[in-house]
Amino acid sequence: MKALQNYRNLVEKIDGFCRSIEKKYFDLIACRKGCDSCCRHISLFPVEAVNLSVALRRLPADESSYIREKACAATADGPCPLLENGACLLYQARPIICRTHGLPILTREFDRPSVDFCPRNFKGVESLPGNAIIDLDLLNTSLAAINALFVSELHGGNPPEKERLTIAEALLLEDFSFAR
Hints:
Blueprint lengths: L4 H20 L18 E2 L1 H12 L3 H13 L9 E2 L2 E2 L7 H5 L4 E5 L2 E5 L17 E2 H20 L9 E2 H5 L9
Parallel strand pairs: 4-6
Antiparallel strand pairs: 1-7, 2-3, 4-5
C-alpha cells in the first residue's frame, strides 16, 4: 500500500537508530524475548493500525485467524493481543512504541528534559551520550505528521471518526474505511 510508505520509511530509520543503541549497549540492555511486562494493549494512530492489518493479511489463513480470535478476546487493560509466549506474533510490523520501548528516551515536561528507560536496562550507568537517546517529542511529531498525511490521502482530507484504534481493532479491520 503506497500510502504507508512514509510510515515505513520512519520505521526503517527508527529501527536503524535502535539497532545502533542495542549493538553499542548490548550488555546493558535486558529487554529480550520473554521480557514482556510492558507489552500492553495500546492504541495506535490509523497509519499504524492499517500497517498491522496489512501485515496480518499477509499471513497464512490459519495464523491470521488465530490472531483475530485473540484480538476478539482482548481486553482494553490487558496484555497486547499479539503477545504469545513472551513474543510478538507480528514482530516485523510491531508499532513504533514497541520498537523503542525500554531504550533511553528524552522527554520534556514543563520544558525540563528528562531521560527515561526500562529500570532493568542500563544498570549502573550514570549518563548516556546524546546519540544513544531517542527524542520522544521529535519522534511523536514525525509520527503525527505522517499519520495526518496518511489519513488525508486515505480519506480524501476528511477527518477520521476515531483518532486512534486499539491493537485489537486494528487486527479486526475488514477494510480501511473505518475512519470515515
